[in-house]
Amino acid sequence: MRTEGTTPARTAPPPAGLDRRARRRQETIEEILVIAVEVMAEDGVTGLSLAEVARRLGVQPPSIYKYFPSLMAVYDALFRRGQVEHLDAMRAAMVGVEPGLPALRAALEAAGGWALANRALAQLLFWRPVPSFVPSDDAFGPSVELFELHRTALADAVVAGQLGPAADSDEAVWLISVMISGVLSQTFANEPDVGWGQGCFTPLFPTLMSTLPVLYPVPGPG
Amino acid sequence: MRTEGTTPARTAPPPAGLDRRARRRQETIEEILVIAVEVMAEDGVTGLSLAEVARRLGVQPPSIYKYFPSLMAVYDALFRRGQVEHLDAMRAAMVGVEPGLPALRAALEAAGGWALANRALAQLLFWRPVPSFVPSDDAFGPSVELFELHRTALADAVVAGQLGPAADSDEAVWLISVMISGVLSQTFANEPDVGWGQGCFTPLFPTLMSTLPVLYPVPGPG
DNA sequence: CAGCTTTAGCTAATGCTCGTAGCTTTGCGG
DNA sequence: CCGCAAAGCTACGAGCATTAGCTAAAGCTG
Q1: Rg for chain A (alpha carbons), in Å?
Q2: For FRET with A64, which of A47, A52, A83, A190 sits at 20 to 30 Å CA-CA?
Q3: Is the CB atom of residue B159 positioned under 7 angstroms from any atom of strand C?
Q4: Residue ranges in chain B whose pLDDT is less than 50
C-alpha cells in the first residue's frame, strides 16, 4: 500500500497481476469488514470484538492488526462504508421519481428501509453508541453529501411549488432528519425484528411527511 | 462509607435503629448508584465499569458484588431509577398547567430537558446502548405509567376541544414519542453540550407539536 | 456481657478483552 | 533461485467481570 502508482505502466499494463499480493490483502480487509458487520448484527455495535472476528476468520487475534491498527480503525472503516451504502440506497430510490417532495419521500423511506435492514451499521452512523469512537474527518465526507441531497430535494420541492420558500433552508433539513431519526430510534429501541412499513412507528412516517406542506405553505396568489 | 467514625448514636441510640445495618447497606447501594451515574456521564453508558466504581468508592472491585450480583443488575437499578426521575420531571412540569395540549407540551419539554441534563441515564432508558442488558420486567413498571400519562393528556386535549377525537389513541402516543425521541436522538448524536431550547434541533419541537391540531383536527360544527 | 450469626471487606484466581513485541514461515518479484 | 516483505504465529501485559474462600467486625440474642 505504498510503492504503488508512482510509476505507471512501464511495459504493457499488467492486467491484474500487478500486485497479486496487494489484491489478496484487499480481499482480507474486505473479509474482515464483512465479518465485523455480521458480529455487530448479532452482538450489537459495542459487541464487536476483534477476537471474535479473528476466530471466524480462522486466525489468531493479533493477526488482525496486520490489516487494521486498532478496533477503532475497524469502526472507522465500517462508518465510512455504512455512510456510502446509506447514501447509495437513497440515491437509487430517487431515480425516475418526480423531483421535489416525491423524490424526498422516496429517499427517506429508502433510508429507513436501509437502516432497518442494517441496524448495526445505522446505529454506528447515527447514534454513536461507542463513546470512545469518534469518526475521522475523512470518514465524515459522505455526511456532507447527505445533507446536500436533502437540501437539494427541498429546494426542488420549492421550485415545483410543493412547498413554500421557507422550506429551502437548513432548518427544514434538520426537521426532516428529526422525523426520520425519531421513527428509527423508536423502532430500534422497541421493535427489534421489524422492517420498514411494519410495527407501530414506521407507518407514522408518511403522516409526519404530510405535515411539511402545512409547516411550509406555498404563498397564496394574493 | 468506611470513614464513618461519627456515630451520633449516643444521644439517640435506637431512634429507628431496628435495622441499622440494613440502613447502612442501603446507603452504600445509593452511593454506588450515584457514582455509577457519574462514571457514565464521563465515559458513556457502555463505559461504566464496576472496577472504576469500586476505585471511587475506595473499595476493591469484588466488594461491589456484596451489593449487586452483576454489572447488569447495576444497569437495571439505574434503569429503574432513571425512569422514575424522568416520570417525576414530567409530572412536576404539569402541575398548575392547563390540562390538555398545554400540559402535554409542558411535560414533553420537561422530559427533553431532563434527558439532556441526564444524557447517560436517558440513553440507557431510550436507546438501549448495551446490547447484553435487557431491563427486567420489574424495572419496566414506570414505562406503563409514562404511556398512560401521554394517553391521558391526549384525552384531555380531546375533551378540551384542542384536538379531534382521533387523538385519543395509541397511535397519537406513538406519534408524540417519535417527535420527542427524534429531537433528542439528533441532539445526542450531533450536539454534545447543548441544553433544551438550544442547538439546531430542540427549538424544532414546538414546531412539531404545532402539527398535532392539523393531524387531529376537531370536527367542524357541520 | 458472652456468643453466635450475619455481613463487609479482603486476596487470589479464572477467563475474557485489546493491544504490543518479536519470531518464523510463506510466497511473490526480480 | 534468492531476497525480502507480508502474514502468520506465540508470548506477554494490562484491564475487565466474576467466583471462591478467608478474615474480621458488627450487631442481634440469650
Answers
A1: 21
A2: A83
A3: no
A4: 1-17
